[in-house]
Design a protein that fits this description.
heterodimer; A: 112 residues; six-stranded mixed β-sheet; four-stranded antiparallel β-sheet; 12 strands; B: mainly beta; seven-stranded mixed β-sheet
């Protein structure tokens, strides 16, 4: 079946540190891949997406590249800020389907 | 452009009661889906509606139901509430294919069952 696996958190970093959150997926066909972010007490916000192999999604300094050969979509940011503290969800959707399949989420805490 | 709007934001219900949650999608979006978020199970898909028709359903008991109106607004209903139904219920609307097909979420309705 289709599934998403994320690295377990929490991830604790100092401000300006480099961030990587690993995400791998299992899916039939060629899914679209997403990163969503959830700030405390809020809903989900789309952070970035990629719809085909080798696509790079980017937004607000975050980047992720759709790697078909390793079935991965790792999230990276060169220099995190305290305001990036949130829970990050990797997700996929199969082509033609509007259902999102989410990973368990990774909590990021950034300290000054 | 207004985002996905969900009401109510917070509510407390008693076991055995029923609850109705409402969702107004982004203008122009015809597809609405619902998700349940709990600490134990994470984010799970409930169902999806498009043009007033349910197109996809997750693995939830029949106590969970939904509908969509002609203006694309959607409601979900949970009958005979159980303690385990306490969760954040998220509504999402999908942009049309020619606008990127992206799924946008509302801020959710926090349901507590006591």
């Amino acid at each position: 079946g289709n599934s998403v696996t994320q690295m377990e958190g929490p991830v604790t970093l100092s401000e300006e540190a480099f961030l990587t959150i690993n995400c791998t997926y299992t899916a039939t066909g060629y899914p679209s891949l997403f990163w969503y972010v959830q700030y405390p007490g809020e809903g989900l916000q789309l952070l970035l997406k990629a719809t085909k192999a080798d696509d790079k999604g980017s937004n607000k300094g975050f980047e992720a590249t759709y790697r078909k050969e390793t079935t991965s979509f790792h999230l990276e940011k060169g220099s995190v800020q305290v305001s990036d503290s949130a829970v990050y969800f990797c997700a996929l959707s199969r082509r033609g389907y509007n259902k999102l399949i989410f990973g368990a989420g990774t909590r990021l805490a950034v300290h000054p | 452009k207004a985002g996905v709007t969900q009401t109510p934001r917070y509510l407390i219900k008693t076991r055995g009661q029923q609850v109705t949650l409402s969702c107004s999608p982004i203008s122009g979006h015809r597809s609405v889906s619902w998700y349940q978020q709990t600490p134990g199970q994470g984010l799970q898909f409930l169902f999806e509606y498009f043009s007033e028709t349910q197109r996809n359903k997750g693995n939830f008991p029949g106590r969970f139901s939904g509908r969509q109106f002609s203006n694309s607004r959607s409601e979900m209903n949970v009958s005979t509430l159980e303690l385990g139904d306490s969760a954040l219920y998220l509504c999402a609307s999908r942009a049309p294919r020619d606008s990127g097909n992206t799924i946008y979420f509302g801020e959710g309705s926090w349901l507590t069952v006591v």
